[in-house]
């Protein structure tokens, strides 16, 4: 274990909470998916989670514990701020035409994102708080399914692709929406498998079904593929890890998968079935995405270390799209987004954040989290999720779980959900 990890574990153990409540830091993180109801941008980026940001600011103002950052968080925050400052300085000096009126806004937004990440992951979570985080994110499928099914009914049970609309009238991109649902499904799945309460199990299996229907209606192929991967790999990991599983869970899982098949046959029209299973992977959508990625990789060597600065690559993306103006997306892929915005150093930081969490989870044998990760990562890679809530929510979640089991190596997820408090 690295010196940084050992130091962070010691700090979290020393600052462990004895109270039975839930910190504002945890609440701010847990309610993010619920703010989708009033989202005001298609990709559901951090500009839509103002309530969470306000709560985090309040927590930092009134709690010294909230302001205490782990070394890992300090390195990540300092690293990204340095990369953004250098990249924008180089762009302003040598390619000033890439700078737009939104450059400063994007710089500030990403600064908020990494500060939110740092504060949320530095907090010392109790069992109650970790359970609360999983349950809140899993239960938030109520919000996504409400928006999706509401739109489906408004369109008269439309047989094509249904794009959800927030209560503020904002259309949501189906692929970004589906990524959030995949994260929600993963959290609900963990709760359903590891909770000791049969009512809780049943409730969260229902939440998964609602999320699955939402993914079907969006017509998102990446969302469908990754939802199946999360459920399938999670199922395998659970039974390998659990050994002699309880009969109630086994029965519920059988009923659950039968219900999923029924709901798929009920809500998946012929058009959707063809889109999911019969379309050529060399269709126009996939070919276009691959072309964007190729263009990004070809331009990346112009700024190999620090990138063009967050959002500044949009100039080239507009050219690739044959459009004029400042677009809100970049390369239609998270890995290539980080590569052109932050260079190889920024992409390396992202890999470090995820990789260190994976290493810790593997070392502590938290295999269910590793099992659901491939589905989430694949869905993330396929779309440009760099500044979205969905991306940073699962990154925060995995870091928090890794930190918790580093501090409590003799516990398991059974302890978290069966005992519920610390």
Biggest sheet layout: none
Global morphology: globular
- Assign the structural class, choosing from mainly alpha, mainly beta, alpha/beta, alpha+beta, or little secondary structure: mainly alpha
The end-to-end span amounts to 26 Å
Q: Number of helical runs?
A: 19
Question: Strand percentage, roughly?
Answer: under 5%
How much is the average pLDDT?
86
Helix content: over 70%
Unreliably modeled segments: 13-19
Alpha-carbon Rg, integer: 21 Å
List the helices and strands in order.
HHHHHHHHHHHHHHHHHHH
Count the E strands. Answer: 0
Please give a structural write-up.
70% of the residues lie in helices and 0% in strands. It is built from 19 helices and no strands. The protein has helices spanning 3-14, 24-30, 50-62, 64-67, 71-94, 103-122, 127-139, 141-154, 174-194, 198-218, 221-242, 247-267, 270-278, 284-299, 314-321, 334-363, 367-382, 389-407, 413-419. Helix 7 crosses helix 19 and helix 9 packs antiparallel against helix 10.
């Amino acid at each position: 274990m690295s010196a940084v990890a050992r130091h962070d574990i010691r700090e979290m153990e020393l600052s462990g909470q004895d109270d039975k409540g839930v910190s504002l830091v945890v609440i701010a993180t847990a309610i993010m998916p619920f703010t989708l109801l009033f989202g005001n941008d298609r990709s559901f980026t951090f500009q839509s989670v103002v309530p969470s940001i306000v709560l985090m600011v309040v927590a930092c103002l009134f709690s010294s514990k909230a302001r205490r950052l782990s070394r890992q968080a300090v390195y990540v925050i300092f690293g990204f701020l340095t990369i953004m400052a250098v990249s924008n300085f180089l762009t302003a000096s040598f390619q000033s035409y890439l700078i737009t009126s939104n450059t400063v806004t994007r710089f500030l937004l990403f600064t908020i994102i990494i500060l939110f990440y740092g504060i949320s992951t530095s907090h010392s979570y109790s069992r109650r708080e970790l359970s609360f985080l999983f349950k809140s994110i899993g239960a938030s499928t109520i919000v996504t399914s409400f928006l999706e099914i509401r739109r489906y009914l408004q369109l008269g049970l439309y047989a094509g692709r249904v794009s959800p609309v927030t209560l503020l009238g904002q259309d949501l991109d189906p692929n970004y929406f589906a990524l959030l649902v995949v994260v929600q499904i993963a959290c609900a799945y963990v709760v359903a498998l590891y909770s000791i309460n049969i009512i809780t199990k049943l409730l969260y299996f229902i939440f998964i079904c609602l999320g699955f229907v939402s993914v079907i209606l969006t017509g998102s192929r990446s969302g469908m593929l990754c939802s199946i991967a999360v459920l399938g790999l999670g199922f395998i990991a659970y039974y390998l890890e659990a050994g002699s599983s309880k009969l109630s869970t086994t029965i519920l899982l059988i009923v659950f998968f039968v219900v999923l098949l029924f709901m798929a046959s009920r809500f998946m029209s012929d058009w959707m079935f063809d889109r999911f299973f019969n379309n050529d992977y060399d269709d126009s959508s996939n070919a276009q995405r691959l072309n964007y990625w190729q263009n990004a990789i070809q331009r990346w060597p112009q700024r190999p270390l620090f990138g063009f600065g967050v959002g500044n690559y949009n100039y080239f993306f507009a050219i690739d799209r044959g459009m004029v103006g400042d677009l809100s997306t970049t390369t239609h892929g998270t890995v290539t987004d980080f590569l052109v915005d932050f260079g190889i150093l920024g992409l390396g930081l992202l890999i470090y954040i995820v990789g260190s969490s994976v290493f810790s989870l593997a070392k502590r044998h938290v295999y269910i989290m590793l099992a659901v990760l491939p589905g989430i990562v694949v869905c993330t890679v396929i779309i440009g999720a760099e500044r979205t809530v969905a991306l940073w929510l699962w990154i925060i979640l995995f870091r928090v779980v890794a930190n918790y089991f580093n501090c409590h190596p003799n516990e398991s997820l059974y302890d978290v959900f069966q005992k519920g408090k610390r």
